[in-house]
């Protein structure tokens, strides 16, 4: 018969013995995901590169970019714009400290004030603000379908990318940096007015974005 030696010891005694003899337990620690999980709304690229539209308010595209202002202390903000693909006309903009769903929604609220009752397809990238539940719930309330570019495919929203390029190279680069947020706001407003109503485009038969868009029914 096998002899068994049973010795009972409390956890404190075991801990002291392990510490005195340099013994460590090989226990796999549970990994904690520190990333806050949230429900994302991911949609297909329904626009599929069909940027040339026949009428206004068929498709609106949107995006945001970082802009600097200030002289002694440089600050960063995000500028949001909403563009109607017909005529590449900027309907609205919004400036916010960071890129949030609230800031994106505000840009669209201003766009719908310009075109009340419109129900366009909305095309965005897959930024966190555009994937959020609150943003997608807002679009659903406006009866708008949401189309999204694939990750790392900026050309799938190329009209707005080209507008940002013009905004930075044709407008901002030729002017002194705005000293205050109010100056930046004024500069953005002037830029939108210039690209909408003053600059003529060969692709629009020599018309401005505003005059080209006015041809729509």
From TrEMBL:
Q: Quote the protein name from its UniProt record.
A: Integrase
Q: Which PANTHER family match?
A: TRANSPOSASE INSF FOR INSERTION SEQUENCE IS3B-RELATED, TRANSPOSASE INSO FOR INSERTION SEQUENCE ELEMENT IS911B-RELATED
Q: Which GO terms describe its biological process?
A: DNA integration
Check the record and name the SUPFAM superfamilies matching this protein. Ribonuclease H-like
Q: Which GO terms describe its molecular function?
A: nucleic acid binding
Xref: Pfam families: rve
* NCBIfam families membership: transpos_IS3
Whose protein is this, by species? Ligilactobacillus agilis
Source organism superkingdom: Bacteria
Q: For the Integrase catalytic domain, which residue ranges apply?
A: 52-217
Concerning InterPro entries, the annotation shows: Integrase_cat-core (IPR001584), RNaseH-like_sf (IPR012337), RNaseH_sf (IPR036397), Transpos_IS3 (IPR048020), Transposase_IS3/IS150/IS904 (IPR050900)
């Amino acid at each position: 018969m096998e002899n068994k030696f049973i010795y009972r010891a409390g956890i404190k005694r075991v801990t002291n013995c392990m510490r005195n003899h340099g013994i460590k337990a090989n226990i796999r620690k549970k990994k904690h995901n520190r990333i806050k999980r949230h429900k994302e709304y991911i949609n297909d690229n329904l626009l599929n590169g069909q940027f040339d539209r026949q009428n206004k308010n068929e498709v609106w595209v949107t995006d945001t970019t970082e802009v600097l202002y200030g002289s002694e202390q440089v600050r960063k903000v995000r500028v949001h714009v909403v563009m109607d693909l017909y005529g590449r006309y900027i309907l609205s903009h919004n400036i916010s400290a960071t890129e949030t769903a609230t800031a994106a929604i505000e840009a669209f609220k201003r766009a719908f004030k310009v075109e009340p009752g419109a129900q366009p397809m909305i095309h965005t990238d897959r930024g966190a603000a555009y994937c959020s539940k609150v943003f997608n719930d807002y679009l659903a309330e406006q009866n708008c379908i949401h189309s999204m570019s694939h990750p790392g495919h900026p050309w799938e929203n190329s009209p707005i990318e080209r507008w940002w390029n013009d905004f930075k190279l044709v407008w901002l680069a030729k002017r002194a940096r705005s000293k205050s947020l109010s100056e930046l706001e004024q500069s953005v407003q002037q830029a939108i007015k210039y690209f909408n109503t003053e600059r003529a485009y060969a692709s629009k038969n020599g018309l401005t974005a505003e005059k080209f868009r006015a041809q729509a029914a």
